[in-house]
Amino acid sequence: MPRLSAATRHRVGFTLNGKPVSVEAEPRLLATDALRHDIGATGTHVGCEHGVCGACTILIDGAPARACLTLAVQLEGREVTTVEGLAPAQDRLSVLQAAFRRHHALQCGFCTAGILISLDAFLREQPEPSEQELREVVGGHLCRCTGYTPIIAAAVEAAALLRRESQTIAQTIALESLDV
Amino acid sequence: MKAEIISWTGQSVERVEDAALLTGRGRFIDDLGTRPGTLHAAILRSPHAHADILSIETETAAALPGVVAIVTGRDLAKLTTPMVAGLKIAAENWPMALERVRYVGEPVAIAVAESRYLAEDALDAIEVAYKPLKTVVDPVASMGEGAPVLHEKAGANLVSDRRFRYGEPEAAFAAAAHTISVSVAYPRNTGAPMETFGVVADYDPHEDVYDILANFQGPFSIHTVLARALKVPGNRLRLRMPPDSGGSFGVKQGVAPYAVLIGVAARIAGRPVKWIEDRLEHLGAAVAATNRVTALKAAVSAEGCISALDWDQIEDCGAYPRAPEPATLYRMHGNMTGAYDIRHVAMRNRVVLTNKAPTGLVRGFGGPQVYFALERLMQRIAVELQLDPLDVIRRNLIPAGAFPYRTATGALYDSGDYQAAVEQAVAGRLAELEQRRDAARAAGKRYGIGFAAAVEPSVSNMGYITTVLTAEERRKAGPKNGAQATATVSIDPVGSVSVHVASTPQGQGHRTVLAQVVADIFGLPHRDIRVVADLDTGKDAWSIASGNYSSRFAAAVAGAAHLAAIRLRDKLALIAADQLKAESTQIGFAGGAVFAKGNPDKTIPFGRVAALCHWAPALLPDGVDQTIRETAFWTPPQLTAPSEGDEINSSLCHGFIFDMAGVEVDPANGKARIDRYVTMHDCGRVLHPGMVEGQIRGGFAQALGATFYEELAYAEDGAFLTGTLADYLLPTATETPDIEILHIETPSPFTQLGTKGVGEGNCMSTPVCLANAVADALGVSEINLPLTPARLAALAAGPEPAQPETGRAVVPAARPGDRSLRGEGEARVAAAPAAIWAMLLDVDTLASIIPGCHGVEKLSDTHFKADVTLGVGPVKGRYKAEIKLSNLDEPRAATLTGSVSGALGTGGGSGRVTLTPDGAGGTVIGYAYEAAVGGKVAAIGGRLLDGAAKAIIGQFFAALARKASPGKPGLLARLFGRRA
Q1: Whether B792 contacts B905, CB under 8 Å
Q2: Is residue A4 in some structural domain?
Q3: Nearest CB to A100 within list B22, B726, B730
Q4: What is the pLDDT of residue B518?
Q5: For residue B976, is pLDDT > 60?
Q6: Pairwise CA distance, residues B624 & B622, whole Å
């Protein structure tokens, strides 16, 4: 691992939501500040800067991480996903995001980015989650507006819709392979 | 046309706000770009609860690279005046300390630099010399003899003492069969929005104008306080709000003093300055709800009917009575009799100051403190008179036919049917709950049922705070009353409709609801209406009552928008009547068209009628001035000033809540499980059921936190103990149960839409409903929040009182977050005791093994000074340490006494180190220590602090071991012995 000088800035290059980005970072620069203020990806929010609230959660190489406890230089060479990277297109919402909107699973929306990131990662890993498992995942985040119930309801519904979607895709692939 | 009947209002449509928030396109204050050249501020805060500032050395900090200015209280005082408070007392309210600090976390200096990182570096280089003073944190003790007086000019910590009398309370108590009482010490807690405060300020020296962007939430009466503090007329303080705000729950009223601080910093720096509060600053110094000591007595008949109440409230506003305080104490003044028909009330209200952070708006605003006492009293009446608790509630409820109902203390309750609400809530559900309780108890479990009834006030009267003044003082100050709401509806040249309001939402979906309400007036799809809800006091319509507080949106703001839209529509109807040759009363608006009723051929597209005023004003019919923009102001006539007899209609609307809970307490571990929770609401007409449900669930979750987890805790010396979200615990998804929500609707006759507020009620009803259930489960009479596992276990273990009057459960002595650190342990080192002994007395060795040490100075053989950097959780700082050795027993044992001090806090303690030969040439080093910490570091709380202390001590001995036997592999693995 290279030793970085505290006094100088270092070029840090990584992939953000599929696109290459780079920042000039002092070693002490937090990943949250680099993402938000240097790159302009302000969707990731900072609620406590000590790793408890979960608002700043991002994916680093597919794994959820607290960006407020991560240094920008630690992102070098990584694949980073933030809330800006969850929707399939600019004018669309992901299945999970749309479920959040239907269930009023957000009010002020400040904590939402982190919760979406954690749930998105979890649902990839566990497509058939129990409600309790979803509660545990959301339990890693603080939301002060909703009382959590609508968030859990949205996550349960999104999981079901995603399963149906993947079944449809699986069936399509199966049919296509029969054709061949 | 049938289409006219379709109503968007009342439907749970998807929110227009959500797509942006879900995709990371929100525009919160820290998401907005700033002007090039904007500087960043960091605030140095007091580590002491009470101390004189002897000196502030800023030269070193000011000379650091990137630092533009260091602003102290003296600089502030040259450009501003103290902030006005609701009380006329001699205490000066400065937003930053001048000569004395009065609470931990009080701003002492501001560093302004090119980046936040450099500004924080500069804070480390500011040297403040303090002379600590005696502190007082307990509100009752603050009134005692010998208590240190916070503001000498005010003469005492008791800054307001008012007595009120309504009806004939003395006669009622004399005639009553029973007098039943409760006493409550309600703790401090806060709304803890996920987004902290933010301010971006700029100053124009030529026009003498402050332009300040802040995630402020109102009330905008505070604008007058700010302008006055900044010494400019109101039109030279342009206060702007960002489009999105990450929650507030009242708390973001407290950003106001920082608008002054950052405004002045920008003026001194000559450039725009931005400041974003961090979480430690927020928990320690933003806004706390008041803690309150209450003694409440009731005059009660044998059947449990209450004829009189006697309130004695001692309100703790912290170190400064900051505007709008003491509003928390008077917010409920009109509804101090709750949902009950009680005609005689005596009241004593005292306001005291203590060495804690200033208080202010927090969701529920005075309601949690009042209803906790009142509804605990209802439960105690049932227990002491051996009555059914629900029957006691039923017997005292205001009769259904009595509305509008004038309370003894002056409120005019607008509407309600409390009996129907209660009966609908309990129907079927109570019987099931009782079965569950009986089954649990039969199985040996501690299960209880709790009830709470509460009247939820909304749309506060701008005059209620003046009830703290005597009638004579009010006459001098001039009348204050009403609650101006405002909304503007405008039509552009293509006929599309926009709405602007001064409601500064923080996540409540105001834009969606306003689009629904206005769309219905014009017969347009709700998606066609665009709403802007952020406010710019420099160009938008607003008044002192503007803002997002007192649950005023649905009742006041949506009504004002409705009014403005109707005025515009009525004028458009005149235009359409003229064009369609029909009577204006026969003009309808639906489906994007304007038509003559009963004549389907006579139809014009809405846009054509709406745009006419822009393109062809000459064609406007007589009586229509313009249809471009209509601003409505609305203030309800019922909100009158306090009467000569101190009666005050403190709020316009009064919703009703009835809650019922089943709770099981595990006496072994103090864990409470909410088995069932039912909450019945009457908030008048519901505009958007999904959002109303969201408000109730959100309020419930905050109340759950207040009941079981949350307290802004202070040590006796005023050290703040709960500075992180690992110490100030908010409920998460795993602790928050699903609840059953019920509604009845009795529309308010006083509001434009029949609506009432709904956001705050569960913060008032839920803590006491759960506490009543716990009291029922454990058979205890005195209960104070938060009901932490330790407190619940102690309550469960306490003797069950045979006679409730005499047998009071002991409140557990364990304080949340005891700041003393204790520990012991041992380490094995492969060197003889004599060698270790020599190392411990050697300056160079110590310098190399003390974690984070920058150098050790030897003052004598047994007295050392060191300069160290220590990090505890998120708080890392440089400290000066002094270490003395005593009770030397060479080479077997020594006592180390040390103290550290730095910008982040202070600490002191002592430990005994023993060196014992291990029989194999090595040494077993045993140590035991006891230490106490204060200041910012103490706010980290026990959990992290204890771990950090152990880690630092561990590092010390690990380094000692390495030094004693260099190159010996595997040693680290054997280092750590038992942990404390």
Answers
A1: no
A2: no
A3: B22
A4: 98
A5: no
A6: 6
What integer best gives the mean pLDDT of chain B? 92
The DSSP output letter for B235 is: G
- Tens of pLDDT, residues B484-508: 999 999 999 999 999 999 999 999 9
Report ipTM (2 d.p.): 0.96
pLDDT of residue B973: 40
Q: How many domains does chain A have?
A: 2
pLDDT of the residue at B836: 86
The amino acid sitting at A27 is P
If you count them, how many residues does chain A have? 180
CA B736 to chain A, closest CA, distance in angstroms equals 7
Compute the average pLDDT of residues B544-570. 97
Closest Cα partner for B458 from B748, B164, B701?
Answer: B748
Fold of B141-189+288-466+641-797: Aldehyde Oxidoreductase; domain 4 (3.30.365)
Shortest CB distance from A147 goes to which of B22, B23, B700?
B700
User: Which of A33, A43, A100 lies at the smallest CB-CB distance from B24?
Assistant: A43
Cα separation, B45 vs B97, whole angstroms: 9
* Domain C-terminal end among A85, A118, A133: A85
Residue B856 pLDDT > 90, yes or no? Answer: no
d(CA A85, CA A59): 10
Cα distance between residue B285 and residue B723, in whole Å: 10
Query: What residues of chain A lie within 8 A of the CB of B246, using their CB?
Result: 45, 47, 108-111
User: Would the CB atoms of A101 and B22 count as touching at under 8 Å?
Assistant: yes
Euclidean distance between CA atoms B215 and B445, whole angstroms: 48
DSSP state of B880: E
Higher local confidence (pLDDT), B937 or B415: B415
SS (H, E, C) chain A: CCCCCCCCCEEEEEEECCEEEEEEECCCCEHHHHHHHHHCCCCCCCCCCCCCCCCCEEEECCEEEEHHHCEHHHHCCCEEECHHHCCCCCCCCCHHHHHHHHCCCCCCCCCHHHHHHHHHHHHHHCCCCCHHHHHHHHCCCCCCCCCCHHHHHHHHHHHHHHHHHHHHHHHHHHHHHHHC
Asked if B383 and B804 touch (Cβ cutoff 8 Å), the reply is yes
Give the mean pLDDT of B388-407. 98
Which chain A residue has the Cα nearest residue B243? A108
Residue B598 burial (CB < 10 Å; 0-12/13-18/19+)?
exposed
Contacting residues of B for A68, CB less than 8 Å apart:
none
Q: Domain containing A41: what range?
A: 10-85
pTM: 0.89
B-chain residues near A106 (CB < 8 A): 18, 21-22, 507
pLDDT value for A175: 74
- Tens digits of residue pLDDT in B302-339: 999 999 999 999 999 999 999 999 999 999 999 999 99
Question: How many whole angstroms separate alpha carbon B136 and alpha carbon B130?
Answer: 17
| A–B interface: beta-carbon pairs under 8 A | 175
Q: Is B521's pLDDT higher than 70?
A: yes
Angstroms from B872 CA to nearest CA on chain A: 11
Q: Hey, what CATH topology would domain B34-133+195-246+251-285 get?
A: Aldehyde Oxidoreductase; domain 3 (3.90.1170)
B2-18+484-634 belongs to which CATH class?
alpha beta
Nearest C-alpha in B relative to A100? B22
* Best A86, A116, A145 residue to mutate vs chain B (most B CBs within 10 Å): A145
CA distance B196 to A45: 11
Contact B23 A151 (CB under 8 A): no
Answer whether B489's CB lies under 8 Å from B522's CB: no
Q: What is the mean pLDDT of residues A125-153?
A: 98
Mark whether A23 and A71 lie in a shared domain.
yes
Q: HSE on the CB side for B303, CA within 13 Å? A: 6
pLDDT of residue B979: 36
What are the b/e assignments for B278-292, b being 16+ CB within 10 Å? Answer: bbbbbbbbbbbbbbb
